[in-house]
Amino acid sequence: xxxxxxxxxxxxxxxxxxxxxxxxxxxxxxxxxxxxxxxxxxxxxxxxxxxxxxxxxxxxxxxxxxxxxxxxxxxxxxxxxxxxxxxxxxxxxxxxxxxxxxxxxxxxxxxxxxxxxxxxxxxxxxxxxxxxxxxxxxxxxxxxxxxxxxxxxxxxxxxxxxxxxxxxxxxxxxxxxxxxxxxxxxxxxxxxxxxxxxxxxx
Length: 202
Hints:
Elements (H helix, E strand, L loop, with lengths): L2 E7 L4 H12 L4 E8 L5 H8 L4 E3 L8 H14 L4 E4 L8 H6 L4 E5 L11 H8 L3 E8 L9 E8 L6 H24 L3 E4 L2 E4 L2
Parallel strand pairs: 1-2, 1-4, 2-3, 4-5
Antiparallel strand pairs: 5-6, 6-7, 8-9
Helix pairs in contact: 1-6
């Protein structure tokens, strides 16, 4: 099926660009129905506009509380016919109520091998720890911080010559390869969740 996709962003949007490129190249059977940001200055919005993708800005400061902020986001997503949500550098934890509106239909990409190095600055965490490997995880979103069922992971080796900048570049390159691939598995109906385990049909 063609995946009716919405992407939530807060920043530069390189993973969004990878999704846009995969759709354009025919590697991802998705219709990007909306790119929504909580940050007016997010360059990701410009990436979407350049490709003719609908965009929306919903800023937290304009709402009295988190609940009304999230309700507005959900309203805009539904209005655009979004059935699956991909987080691509969206820097907010989602409430159980929000997640309940898209049960097992919200995915996120994290720049580390979860459960190692969850939360912010994951690449720096791995680099500062001196880990010989790090990587990338795509997972379903649940109520915790980077705790949802893992769909796929890829390893990135950390060499003694790596700087934080070179490691960041390697991790981002792997993200851009893996995220569109997992979204295509979803479009093909190949994923199912059994407890905490995600089964991928060949």
